[in-house]
Amino acid sequence: MIMIPNTRHSMIENYIAAIFPTLEEAAAANAILLDLSRQGVIRLERSELVGRSVDGELVSEGSDTDASMLIDVAALPGGGDEEARDELTEVMPAGMHALLARVVESDPVPINDAVSANGGIVYRRSIDEIEASGLRRFEDASEID
C-alpha cells in the first residue's frame, strides 16, 4: 500500500470579479461557488451580483447566495470590501454583469473553471493588495488636504 502524506495547501483570501455577458451566467457561476463552498473546496465569505448599465451606472442585482453559508464580513478585521468592490467593478464594461465575491481558496482552478464554463472571465485581487491600495488612496487624499 502506498501512503500519500497529507499536505496542506496555503489558503489565500481573495476578492474576485467574474465578468459575464448575462445575469443568468453570473448567477449560474455563483451557484457553483456555493456548491464548492459546501464541499469545502473553497470558502465563500460573500457574494453579490452586479450589473453595469449601458450608461456606465452600477446596479446591484442582488445575491443568489444562501445566507447560512456566509460569514459576516463586517465582523472580520481589515475590512476592504468597499475598496474591493470599487476596484473590481472598474474592469467591468458597460452592459455586462459580474459576480463579486470574497473567497478563501488554495487553488484558483475551481473558481476559474466555474466561471469559464459559464462564459465569464475572472479578475482576482488578494485582500492584502486591496487593503494596501485603500491605504495608499487614503494617504494620497490626506496629502491633498
Q: Which features would summarize this protein structure in a list?
A:
single chain, 145 residues, alpha+beta, 5-stranded antiparallel beta sheet, flat, disordered N terminus
Can you describe this structure?
The chain is an alpha+beta fold. It contains four helices and five strands; from the N terminus they run E-H-E-E-H-E-H-E-H. The protein has a five-stranded antiparallel beta sheet with strand order 3-2-4-1-5, sandwiched between helices. Mean pLDDT is 78; it is low at 1-7 and 64-79.
Low-confidence stretches: 1-7, 64-79
Number of helices: 4
What series of H and E elements makes up the topology?
Answer: EHEEHEHEH
Gyration radius, in Å: 16 Å
| Overall pLDDT confidence | 78
Write the layout of secondary structure elements.
Layout: E1 12-20, H1 23-38, E2 43-52, E3 58-60, H2 81-89, E4 97-105, H3 109-117, E5 121-126, H4 127-144
Antiparallel strand pairs: 1-4, 1-5, 2-3, 2-4
Helix pairs in contact: 1-3
